[in-house]
């Protein structure tokens, strides 16, 4: 099994690119057993989604400016 450090790196990479089947399975298996990594994955997804919404809203407001 991979270390928490390796899994957190894969989780971060998975936000930016498609992971291989083996990498996705490694992450899935690890987060099923590791609460800390599961929390890291959840928080990373939340931060990514919040940042995306913020930039979309900012872009929308700037493009609608008179």
TrEMBL record:
Domain Putative zinc-finger: 4-38
UniProt xrefs under InterPro entries: Znf_put
Name of the molecule in the record: Putative zinc-finger domain-containing protein
Natural source organism: Methylobacter tundripaludum (strain ATCC BAA-1195 / DSM 17260 / SV96)
């Amino acid at each position: 099994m991979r270390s928490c450090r390796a899994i957190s790196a894969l989780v971060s990479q998975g936000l930016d690119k498609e992971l291989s089947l083996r990498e996705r399975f490694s992450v899935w298996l690890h987060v099923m057993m590791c609460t800390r990594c599961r929390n890291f994955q959840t928080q990373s997804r939340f931060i990514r989604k919040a940042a995306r919404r913020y930039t979309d809203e900012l872009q929308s407001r700037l493009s609608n400016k008179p």
